[in-house]
Amino acid sequence: MSKNRHRSLIEHQDDIGAYVPPDHRGTVNVRLVDGAFCGRFEMNLGTVQPGGEAEPHWHETEHQVMYVLDGECEVTLGDDRPVTCGPGTVVRIPPKLRHRVVATGETPMRAIVLYSPPLGPRNEIPVGPA
Q: Is 6 among the domain residues?
């Protein structure tokens, strides 16, 4: 019996392929947990360079939760005014709610982003390991 049979369940973020999401500028994501893990959610580490943005968009069926780790951004939900968000901020976005995220600080904004259910196929641009 192998003592490392569960080793594939442990991985460093630098060993996971990164990608640029569609309609995002200055953004690189690392899909830390994909839908194949349990089929109920996916978890990403998003890094948005200063001035980068997720252009206004919505998700048809997916709930999105963003937890800001570092940096600063402005989040616009629907027709509301932008809200400045920094480390420790939790943003909850239900399906079909238009949203926009712009990195506003002088350093990159990093966030953990969850989707449930996992996002379907999209026109992502692979950029290799993070």
A: no
3-state secondary structure of 7: helix
Supply the pTM of this predicted model.
Answer: 0.91
- Report the C-alpha gap between 18 and 62 in whole angstroms: 21
Examine residue 38 and state whether it is found in any structural domain, yes or no: yes
Residues in the chain: 130
CATH of the domain at 88: 2.60.120.10
Structure tokens at 130: 């993070």
Tell me if 95 is assigned to some domain: yes
Count up the domains in the chain and report the number. Answer: 1
Torsion of CA 46, 114, 74, 15, to 10 degrees: -10
CA distances in angstroms from 67 to 25, 71, 92, 127, listed in the order given: 19, 11, 9, 23
Express each pLDDT in 66-112 by its tens digit. 999 999 999 999 999 999 999 999 999 999 999 999 999 999 999 99
